[in-house]
Design a protein that fits this description.
The protein has about 500 residues and is mainly beta. It is built from 5 helices and 35 strands. The strands form 9 sheets. Strands 2, 30, 31, 32, 33 and 34 form a 6-stranded antiparallel sheet that branches. Strands 1-7-6-3-35 form a 5-stranded antiparallel sheet, with no helix packed on it. A 4-stranded antiparallel sheet has the order 8-9-10-11, with no helix packed on it.
Amino acid sequence: MQNLQLSASQTAAQNVSYDRTDWQRGYESQPNESDYWIDDIEGEIPADLQGTFFRNGPGLLDVNGQRIHHPFDGDGMICAIAISEGRAHFRNRFIHTEGYLAEQKAGKILHRGVFGTQKPGGWLANIFDVKIKNIANTNIIYWGDKLLALWEAAQPYRLDPRSLETLGLDTLDGILQPGEAFAAHPRIEKGKNGKGDRLVNFSVKPGLSSTITIYELDESGKLLQRHAHAIPGFAFLHDMVITPNYCIFFQNPVSFNPLLFVLGFRSASQCIQFSPNKPTQAILIPRNGTDEVKILETEPCFVFHHCNAWEEGDEVFVDSVCYDSFPTVEADGDFREIDFESVPAGELWRFKLNLQDKTVQHQVVETRCCEFPTLHPNNVGQPYRYLYIGAADAPTGNAPLQAILKIDFVTGERHIWSAAPRGFAGEPVFVPRGSGVSPEAATAEDDGWLLLLMYDAANHRSTLVILDARDITKGPVARLHLKQHIPYGLHGSFTPNVLLPIGS
């Protein structure tokens, strides 16, 4: 989650690492779609790096001048950077969702957004309109030879992986019924002992009692398992982690009163209230689909994103980015102007879940403001040593993400690369060395590349930064400068397939 902004008085009073106007310009809409070979490159693209980097996020922060209230409500736009033999090709396309096409044709906002966007006309224009607009703006994965844009409350949209043309809503070859959701945070379990990789994902139907459905798909997209479980209470679940035996969720201590939403005064997320006196619940759903669901309680905190989880005997460890409360969105506020210090900052916590005595302990691993974690894909669901995460430039205080932090859990060492003062970082994606060329080339857990799309405020453009994951302090081995800026995004992925447009 790209964090919110300091007030002007605080910017002047504090020694901050960024300029307020610089940060705000990264939230300008990018209505243009482009297609070109990247020719402005500093350094050299690693010879062993071949494949396609995809990233999803809100491309429009307004509709014909009518502002979106929160970036999470913006229409999804996919960026694809195909890398082959030291060259890179860029392409971006909007996902032609039903809502996007209708609003572009009308030239105005036609749909309410989950995070605060309202139709013009006040409460009378919004009353009793509870239709959800699928904005497909959160994640993008290439799985089973399909490119899928994900938004957690609806079906995925399928795109052509080379042209990025929108092909329509996808049922995953009949796995999903029309209208069924497929969340935006799947986990990929790497195959071991001759087994293929698995994609594990979920959907949530919240209510007085919430239903979590687990899906497991093989590399071809075939359904291996599906099972549903009823959980007491309203569940706000954005992400999960997996181990060999469990899918693990943290049920945030929140309540939802839909009255003001139904009456048109507030969005759905503005009707969510954090309950600081109620515990956060760790929900462990057995992946075999038959054993009993385990629910353990811990102190109240709010989690958007988890890092990783693993098992050690009767204990399960979970690393998560935790907030001390739900970062609410004011109905009349502008996210570009919100006081940064009034918004809770993310910290990295490590939870130890004892399944025998049903207790949870935690320690704060990193207090620096951080978000968007990533790690070597082979260690998903397994013990691991290295974590990479977007971070603030300064070690204390809440601020935009301008840096990448590498944490060594064995030695305790921290290493940081910062794009401050005029660069703003996005989510890093870890690519093992040799992906697409010779995967066996990488042996160490940190032997690979970090790819991230950075906003360069000095030139009002975005840059694909490639860092050597072994030593990020050396700075980028290559910077691939785009011809335009891309608004701050959400999540992305990498495939070793070089998916160049036909004829490129």
